[in-house]
# Entry
Amino acid sequence: MPIIEANTIFKTNLTKHEVYQGQSTQKFSLQLALSEEQVEELNKQGVKTKQYEGQPLRKFSSRYAIDVFDKKGPVAAQDLQELPSGSKVRLEYVTKKHPTAGEVPYAKRLMILEIAEEQAGETDKEFFEGTSS
# Structure
């Protein structure tokens, strides 16, 4: 199975199903920020990628819970938390042919390499730290 090592972009959906337009997608998911080399490799596999503010990315999802590991071994479901954007992970995935979307990657196992610090948005920073007006 192919493996990719990258940083998460946006918060993950490892503990609960992703919600899109107010409805559950019935899938667990995460999106990864990709290097140009990773984009080329995924494209060779027939996997399409997207861009967000100039950053190449790809969503990996699964209808089933994604097995998550850290340096100590498997992470128990009750101990699992969502990863903030910028967390470094290694993901094992498989691809399956889709009639219109090409090869679609499905997440199988995830190794947490480094957890990023949660970043408060600018609005939150202004609220909690105050402004010097």
User: Anything to note?
Assistant: The beta strands are 3-8, 19-20, 23-24, 28-33, 50-52, 55-62, 67-70, 73-74, 88-98, 102-114.
